[in-house]
Backbone:
């Protein structure tokens, strides 16, 4: 029983560092770079992806046995697109300001390789509970990476964290814009490779 | 004049890769060699333009009249997936040499967020080309899609050239592979920021 609980727990935690979707698997780069202009945006994007990831993993693990092999990719994409549409409608109804900030990148969760990747690599061959935990772990890992990138870019770019300003002045504008996104991600990957990755 | 502004703005000022962050995964994935980068750019250019025309028509004549705009995400991804499949079959039949050149890249394009991104942008965003904000008509959409994909190809081919040289240098171990590539892209993006005052 102890062992079983441990393995369930490790299903979740493996997404944090060992299989971190951003720094190790290098999936879902577009939202990672585009939405991390501030810590809050990064966190919101991560949570939105987490929502779709967990639900689509559960649905796909349940339907996988009856889907013919030849059409499995289109079927998975439709399942994912359905959950993304659900998310879009929910966000428009309850948090319209967040929906407006993240904009295009909410519908683009459909083509986020993390979601389809987990469906292909995990959910289609495991039961619903394990798939949900896997989605949860990878989703939390993704959310953490996005939040960390967002925090760094917000500190450098506007001298604040989660909107709390502690450095007066404008900050380095380039870090809020495109070049800063690539640079922060690049240097974080270097640190990750050097200190956290066990090859 | 208006078309000229759309073209310059889409290729340089709002470059799809370096300032909008769409289609980063294939950008990082296949830019190791100049020849594959060129092939991928060609395929992307072809599919983006075609997909934009089809999704624009689907949106205008199917979704809007029936009030089904909330199905945009699902409808568009299905149209794109079907279109890519069709292009593959047709190319195989009528131009085997082009199929040889683009063949391996075509299936990858379905999950390239640049395609879905441009399709959604064209039907949802108001543009301010030539004074008053307005939705793009079909002609402008096609020009926008074509110019955007040329911008994609430009950034991709420039980067592949840089990366070929990079691979011959002695890069410190934690920087090898993606991190140094990301830092290089960051400097390229900084160069492209110089165009921002143009339009």
Residues:
């Amino acid at each position: 029983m102890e062992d079983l609980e441990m393995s369930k727990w490790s299903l979740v935690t493996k997404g944090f560092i060992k299989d971190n979707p951003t720094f190790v698997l290098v999936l879902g780069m577009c939202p990672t770079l585009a939405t991390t202009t501030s810590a809050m945006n990064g966190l919101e994007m991560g949570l939105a992806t987490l929502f779709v990831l967990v639900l689509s993993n559960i649905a796909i693990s349940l339907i996988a046995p009856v889907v013919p092999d030849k059409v499995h990719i289109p079927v998975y994409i439709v399942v994912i697109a359905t959950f993304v549409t659900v998310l879009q409608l929910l966000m428009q109804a309850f948090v319209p300001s967040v929906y407006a900030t993240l904009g295009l990148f909410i519908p683009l969760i459909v083509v986020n390789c993390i979601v389809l990747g987990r469906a292909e690599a995990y959910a289609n061959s495991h039961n619903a509970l394990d798939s949900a935990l896997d989605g949860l772990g990878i989703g939390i890992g993704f959310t953490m990476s996005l939040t960390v990138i967002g925090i760094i870019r917000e500190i450098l770019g506007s001298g604040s964290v989660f909107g709390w300003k502690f450095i007066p002045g404008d900050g380095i504008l380039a870090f809020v814009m495109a070049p800063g996104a690539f640079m922060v991600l690049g240097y974080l990957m270097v640190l990750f490779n050097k200190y956290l990755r066990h090859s | 004049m208006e078309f000229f502004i759309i073209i310059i703005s889409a290729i340089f000022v709002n470059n799809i890769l370096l300032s909008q962050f769409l289609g980063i995964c294939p950008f990082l994935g296949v830019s190791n060699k100049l020849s594959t980068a060129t092939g991928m750019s060609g395929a992307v250019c072809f599919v983006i333009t075609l997909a934009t025309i089809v999704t624009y028509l689907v949106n205008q004549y199917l979704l809007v009249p029936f009030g089904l705009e909330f199905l945009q995400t699902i409808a568009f991804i299905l149209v794109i997936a079907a279109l890519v499949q069709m292009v593959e079959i047709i190319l195989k039949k009528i131009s085997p040499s082009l199929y040889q050149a683009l063949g391996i890249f075509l299936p990858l394009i379905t999950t390239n967020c640049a395609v879905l991104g441009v399709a959604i942008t064209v039907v949802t965003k108001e543009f301010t080309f030539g004074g008053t904000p307005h939705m793009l008509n079909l002609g402008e959409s096609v020009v926008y899609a074509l110019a955007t994909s040329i911008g994609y190809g430009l950034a991709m081919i420039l980067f592949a050239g840089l990366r070929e040289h990079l691979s011959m240098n002695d890069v410190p171990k934690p920087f090898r592979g993606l991190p140094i590539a990301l830092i290089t892209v960051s400097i390229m993006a900084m160069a492209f920021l110089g165009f921002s005052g143009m339009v």
